[in-house]
Amino acid sequence: AELRARLRAVRHTVLVLSGKGGVGKSTFSALLAHGLAADETKQVALLDIDICGPSIPKIMGLEGEQVHQSGSGWSPVYVEENLGVMSVGFLLSSPDDAVIWRGPKKNGLIKQFLRDVDWGEVDYLIVDTPPGTSDEHLSIVQYLSATHIDGAVIVTTPQEVSLQDVRKEINFCHKVKLPIIGVVENMSGFVCPKCKNESQIFPPTTGGAEKMCQNLSVSLLGKVPLDPQIGKSCDRGQSFLAEAPESPATLSYRNIIQRIQEYCEQHHLQEEKIM
């Protein structure tokens, strides 16, 4: 009941999942939040539940920030007026501190984030999850089932070793009845800025995300090419979309973000019809 009361003001909830680490899931979560918040009429919240590897504070340029408590709960840390962030990284005394917790303590913190953070009225709540299909994922799906989840975006890279784990992630979504918005293929080819030739840094030996999506009847939201500037922007805590507006990767991100928005709006209309 407490969760339902707190999350009643959240219009859309999107989980960002990945089968394995290092595929750019947190980067995607951050850029999805930046992209949605580019519309100043929209209020966006980014919740980082990657408890053992919270990289969102660094990517969003919020390292060293602290969480403040008010009468209405924990206040998120704001990047912009319409973009708030919450992460376990804000609760650590140093970015180098290791979080050595068993499952129940992790689950307790996730519940606390959902119950105690005062997001206010929010159009989009983006949840950045750790890799895999374990405690944190089961907890977030279970807790959010008290309200509603629009669906999950699954991030992968083109090579088979990544797709193998993504198939498990898709299977997880089906088992817990979590709708899949679609798959994003990250690091999909690299266009040399000098000679303009394209190289496959991670060759899609089994057809990449496109073939996998066809086989599993899941939407492919888009392919994001490798761009060294993305890593540099993340290290500086800046939005890559704002720093490189003409990059092919930015254009790809914008198309993907638009597709996610369209899905959420459609999902909202369908829910209203059912009610």
Automatic annotation (TrEMBL):
<comment type="function">
    <text>Component of the cytosolic iron-sulfur (Fe/S) protein assembly (CIA) machinery. Required for maturation of extramitochondrial Fe-S proteins. The NUBP1-NUBP2 heterotetramer forms a Fe-S scaffold complex, mediating the de novo assembly of an Fe-S cluster and its transfer to target apoproteins. Implicated in the regulation of centrosome duplication. Negatively regulates cilium formation and structure.</text>
</comment>
<keyword id="KW-0067">ATP-binding</keyword>
<keyword id="KW-0004">4Fe-4S</keyword>
<dbReference type="GO" id="GO:0051539">
    <property type="term" value="F:4 iron, 4 sulfur cluster binding"/>
</dbReference>
<dbReference type="GO" id="GO:0005829">
    <property type="term" value="C:cytosol"/>
</dbReference>
<dbReference type="Pfam" id="PF10609">
    <property type="entry name" value="ParA"/>
</dbReference>
<dbReference type="GO" id="GO:0005634">
    <property type="term" value="C:nucleus"/>
</dbReference>
<dbReference type="InterPro" id="IPR019591">
    <property type="entry name" value="Mrp/NBP35_ATP-bd"/>
</dbReference>
<keyword id="KW-0963">Cytoplasm</keyword>
<dbReference type="InterPro" id="IPR000808">
    <property type="entry name" value="Mrp-like_CS"/>
</dbReference>
<keyword id="KW-0479">Metal-binding</keyword>
<dbReference type="GO" id="GO:0016226">
    <property type="term" value="P:iron-sulfur cluster assembly"/>
</dbReference>
<dbReference type="InterPro" id="IPR027417">
    <property type="entry name" value="P-loop_NTPase"/>
</dbReference>
<dbReference type="GO" id="GO:0140663">
    <property type="term" value="F:ATP-dependent FeS chaperone activity"/>
</dbReference>
<protein>
    <submittedName>
        <fullName>NUBP1 factor</fullName>
    </submittedName>
</protein>
<dbReference type="GO" id="GO:0005524">
    <property type="term" value="F:ATP binding"/>
</dbReference>
<keyword id="KW-0547">Nucleotide-binding</keyword>
<dbReference type="GO" id="GO:0046872">
    <property type="term" value="F:metal ion binding"/>
</dbReference>
<keyword id="KW-0411">Iron-sulfur</keyword>
<keyword id="KW-0408">Iron</keyword>
<dbReference type="InterPro" id="IPR033756">
    <property type="entry name" value="YlxH/NBP35"/>
</dbReference>
